[in-house]
Specification:
The chain is an alpha+beta fold and 672 residues long. The protein folds into three domains: 297 residues, FAD/NAD(P)-binding domain (3-Layer(bba) Sandwich); 161 residues, Flavocytochrome C3, Chain A, domain 1, CATH 3.90.700; 121 residues, Fumarate reductase/succinate dehydrogenase flavoprotein-like, C-terminal domain (Methane Monooxygenase Hydroxylase, Chain G, domain 1), CATH 1.20.58.100. It is built from 18 helices and 23 strands. Strands 1, 2, 3, 6, 7, 8, 9 and 17 form an eight-stranded mixed sheet that branches. The chain is globular and about 85 Å long.
Length: 672
């Protein structure tokens, strides 16, 4: 890594000094995927690299999890057969995923998992050394494993140790604000990234720092700040808008996950939290009065209600198909409707589900067989949900206690946005449509509807694939700092001029209300309950906001406001892309699938309640599983987004022969 301070010649005669840092590869993001990529690059011989991050020690990998956060991997114990292709089929069958990418993730699963075991992530094993699994959602086998509530945190911590052991430079307090590019047409490529160094905000150029890099790896996670109800950590914004503005193609932006979570301390309430079968109730807005056991409106009796709560454990994300026949997603929908009506919803671990008038009291013996056998086999037959939770998963109680929450008190909950399966389009090596730019982790739009926990596997596999390609194909150094600065000076000057305007123009949009307006709009139109009229109205509002930002700017009282304002600008564009994808999908006949239901007065499905059928909605159109909706910003436009449906590539037939594979590998042909 080389660091230089160089003057930037501006049209008004000023020559502010900017820092230029030159490396072969810069990794933006220091979560589990970004850190694994850094470790792998170093071990593959590429030592000229750096990691930049806005706040080291925080982010989704560190600050998110569940009762026992799942890592989905290929089966590795017992005599149940598994294979990379079987694994790929499980990823592929949900739709909206290319078969070759699914196969790559299957092939890379065991090496990625064993690397995490090697560096000390405490995945449990039996006395034979078998990594015993359990079943998660959309999982035909018992492939899931977990290191407890903090699986991804342990991954990131161990990987950070490896990065520090290798003395890989980490540039903290750097916010990526713009991708720098060179060339036109097919020759266009990324040339680096422009960052705001928060510790240098007082300088003439506000801390603008140029990372001059042959390769940029974006590992910035999902767009959690798009939503008012979100279980992503506060401040998790991703970099979708930044990439879209540079012409990068995205895909699967219709596919997100939503599920029950606590809203004070943000945490997923999956797994054991549901399997111990706590009571649910809602209140008026004061949190005390008008207590109501609202779930009885959706279930015919207490055993079916209690069994649905249990099933939310491993059917945790909301899923439209589970709204029928008293399925477990009725719990999510009921909670959502209560909160939308202005009520507050709580889980009560000190009490079993309360019977409706005339119903017999709760009894474990009355549960449906699947739930009853699970609790019996787990020895979880204690009298209260809290006691069952303490028996099955004491770490899940300790986790809340660490954050000052006593689960013996009612826990306020909501249905929250949790994960984005879509993101930037990547090839077999996780390179995006912009040459030399890679997207890994949650930012890469690999999946459609997927098994729970497979995102962690995908992040580790993709990180290694990107590192392998960079080390083998893109190993040359970047141009000199002076050459790069000369070539991209116009892009840097444009960014500096925008910031000058935001700081000098008092008539710009106010920071606080700006983000809240984006979040309210996306939670209204782009969450788990969707309809074409609402999406279309929200899309018009989102486009108007982008135009207003371009015309009036965002009012910043101090350079310290610039990182937040830049995030909001890109979130506004991100919301346009997501809403345009939803509009195109629904308009083309897309129905309820995965984690969303599409309301339609002419829909053939509805939700049965004690008071009659509600919420008519479309069934899934299975033909849409065979395509992926790609999204890109129209070249030269401010916020016009194009959508193109692309056929899903099938699962490959891999009949490779060792001798020819060996020769192709030695000649580097596998990278072509």
């Amino acid at each position: 890594m080389r660091r230089q301070a160089l003057p930037l010649a501006l049209a008004d005669g000023r020559r502010p000094e900017v820092t230029v840092i030159s490396v072969n590869t810069v990794i933006v993001g220091a979560g589990a995927a970004g850190l694994r990529c850094a470790e792998a690059l170093y071990d593959l011989g590429q030592r000229d690299l750096a990691v930049v991050f806005d706040h080291l020690g925080h982010g989704t990998s560190i600050d998110a999890g569940s009762d026992k956060q799942t890592y989905y991997k290929i089966g590795l114990f017992g005599d149940e057969p598994d294979s990379p292709m079987d694994f790929a089929r499980s990823l592929f069958q949900g739709g909206m995923m290319h078969g070759d990418l699914a196969y790559v993730e299957g092939l890379g699963s065991a090496p990625a998992f064993f690397e995490l075991c090697r560096i000390g992530v405490p995945f449990p094993q039996n006395r034979f050394g078998g990594y015993v699994g359990y079943k998660t959602d959309h999982d035909p086998r018992q492939r899931a494993t977990s290191a407890g509530p903090k699986t991804s945190k342990y991954m990131a911590e161990r990987l950070l140790e490896q990065v520090r052991l290798r003395q890989i430079p980490i540039l903290d307090h750097h916010d990526a604000v713009r991708l720098l590019t060179l060339g036109d047409g097919a020759a266009r490529r990324v040339a680096g990234v422009l960052c705001l160094h928060r510790d240098e905000h007082f300088r003439e150029a506000y801390g603008l720092t140029v990372i001059n890099a042959r390769n940029v790896v974006l590992a910035t996670g999902g767009p959690g700040e798009l939503y008012r109800r979100s279980v992503w950590p506060h401040g998790q914004v991703g970099s979708h808008g930044l990439a879209l503005a540079a012409g990068v193609v995205a895909n699967n932006l219709t596919e997100l996950q939503y599920g029950l979570a606590s809203i004070g301390f943000r945490w997923n309430l999956s797994g054991t939290y549901q399997q111990v079968i706590p009571d649910y109730y809602s209140t008026a807005a004061d949190g005390v009065s008008d207590r109501r056991r609202f779930l009885h409106d959706y279930f015919p009796d207490l055993p079916s209600l209690a069994s649905a709560i249990f099933l939310k454990g491993y059917q945790w994300p909301f899923h439209a198909a589970r709204l029928q026949d008293h399925g477990s997603s009725l719990v999510d929908l009921a909670v959502h409707l209560e909160t939308e009506a202005g009520r507050r919803v709580f889980m009560d671990f000190m009490n079993n589900p309360s019977p409706a008038p005339g119903q017999p009291p709760f009894a474990l013996a009355d549960l449906q067989p699947e739930a009853r056998r699970y609790l019996e086999r787990s020895g979880a037959l204690q009298s209260t949900p809290y006691e069952r939770l303490r028996h099955m998963n004491p770490q899940s109680i300790e986790l809340y206690a660490e954050h000052g929450v006593d689960l013996r008190e009612p826990l306020e909950i909501a249905v929250c946005a949790q994960h984005c399966n879509g993101g930037l389009r990547g090839n077999l090596w996780w390179e995006t449509s912009l040459a030399n730019l890679f997207a890994i982790g949650e930012l890469n739009g690999t999946h459609g509807v997927r098994p729970g926990g497979s995102a962690l596997n995908s992040g580790q596999v993709g990180a290694l694939r990107a590192a392998q390609y960079i080390a083998r194909v893109y190993a040359e150094p970047p141009p000199s700092a002076g050459e790069l600065l000369s070539a991209v000076s116009g892009q840097i000057a444009d960014q500096l001029a925008e910031y000058d305007g935001w700081l000098r123009h008092s008539g710009g949009l106010a920071l606080g209300p700006l983000r809240r307006s984006i979040q309210e709009r996306m939670s209204r139109a782009g969450a788990q309950v969707r309809s074409l009229p609402v999406v279309e109205a929200a899309l018009r509002e989102a486009r108007d906001l982008c135009r207003q930002i371009a015309a009036d700017g965002i009012h910043c009282t101090t350079p310290r406001d610039l990182p937040r304002a830049t995030q909001d600008k890109w979130l506004a564009l991100t919301s346009v892309a997501f809403l345009e994808a939803l509009r195109a999908y629904i308009e083309r006949g897309g129905g309820s699938r995965g984690a969303s239901m599409v309301l339609d007065p002419a829909g053939s499905l509805s939700v049965a309640t004690r008071h009659g059928a509600i919420l008519p909605h479309r069934p899934e159109c299975l033909a849409h599983r065979g395509e992926i909706l790609e999204v890109s910003l129209v070249e030269g436009s401010l916020c016009d987004v194009a959508t193109v449906p692309v056929p899903v590539r099938p699962l490959p037939v891999d009949a490779s022969w060792f001798e020819t594979t060996w020769a192709a590998f030695c000649r580097g042909e596998i990278y072509r």
